[in-house]
Design a protein that fits this description.
Elements: H1 2-8, H2 28-40, E1 48-52, H3 55-69, H4 80-83, H5 87-98, E2 103-107, H6 118-125, H7 143-155, H8 165-176, H9 188-197, H10 199-209, H11 227-230, H12 235-266
Parallel strand pairs: 1-2
């Protein structure tokens, strides 16, 4: 809170945007404290703005993120019901703390956004001059890439915890990110029972947005039916994975050869080094 308070009391500040996905995990008490800090900084108006994914889209995105960021997965944590967003639990506390007239919900739908860009949409909504450019991060993986990662998490060597864990995980994600294939999409048969269980919560969220989610639940040939279906690899995916392995091994060999050439070229010309005790 100290750095936030410092920013609030800057005399040249006119507007302040506080953004972060983790804000939804604050408790009601923590949000009330955050509001108090804002008000102590002479903030005249406080607005809360949230992009809301449709339930199926949220479950699919959460499924990806959990596999990408968990070094060892538990299948029970990846069940669609375990990934459901629980809208009322996430957002009602904001209404209670900041007031219904100060909380704004907007459906997250890239097809609706200018240039398919959420940053541009946000700036347009709040009439903020957009200067760009936007650096896109955290792109979704294709189904084959996610399947390979899931198999590694489930059956491969566990990435050891420590200072290099994030670096190793980032290297792994970068390696498989280029695997081609359709995007991750769950079968309606896997998700619809969850949506029916939470239909009252979904209706509450739609009422807050004053808009129906109207989500596309039609099946496609690439839908993931269950975990077993995700881990069935077609020959093309296996060939692509082998290609990545060959590229990595070749790159390692080339790097080793480069080091050997440098060693042979430089070391013989160095003067001898003598140590005395």
């Amino acid at each position: 809170m100290t750095s936030l308070q410092t920013e609030l009391f800057r005399r040249d500040r006119r507007n302040l945007i506080l953004s972060g996905e983790g804000i939804v995990f604050l408790t009601t008490e923590e949000l009330a404290e955050l509001k108090r800090v804002f008000q102590s900084g002479k903030i005249d108006e406080i607005d809360v703005f949230a992009y809301v994914r449709t339930p199926k889209s949220f479950i699919e995105a959460a499924f990806q993120e959990r596999i990408k960021n968990s070094f060892k997965i538990q299948l029970s944590q990846l069940e669609p019901n375990a990934l459901y967003p629980n809208y009322r639990q996430r957002f009602l506390k904001f209404i209670e703390v900041f007031g219904d007239d100060r909380v704004h919900f907007r459906r997250f739908d890239l097809e609706r956004f200018p240039n398919h860009c959420v940053v541009r949409d946000f700036c347009q909504f709040w009439q903020i001059p957009f200067t760009g450019p936007v650096r896109k991060i955290n792109d979704g993986l294709s189904r084959p890439a996610l399947a390979a990662l899931c198999a590694f998490r489930q059956f491969g060597t566990t990435i050891p915890h420590g200072p290099r864990a994030e670096q190793i995980n980032g290297f792994l994600l970068n390696r498989i990110a280029g695997l081609p294939g359709p995007k991750v999409r769950f079968s309606p048969d896997w998700v619809v029972p969850v949506l029916k269980t939470h239909q009252d919560d979904i209706a509450w969220m739609e009422a807050q947005m004053d808009e129906s989610f109207d989500e596309d639940l039609s099946p496609t040939q690439y839908d993931i039916q269950d975990f077993g279906d995700l881990l069935r690899f077609d020959p093309q995916t296996v060939a692509d994975l082998m290609g990545l392995m060959v590229e990595f091994i070749t790159g390692q060999l080339q790097a080793r050869q480069t080091r050997q050439i440098a060693y042979q070229a430089v070391v013989p010309k160095l003067p001898p080094v003598r140590f005395s005790l």
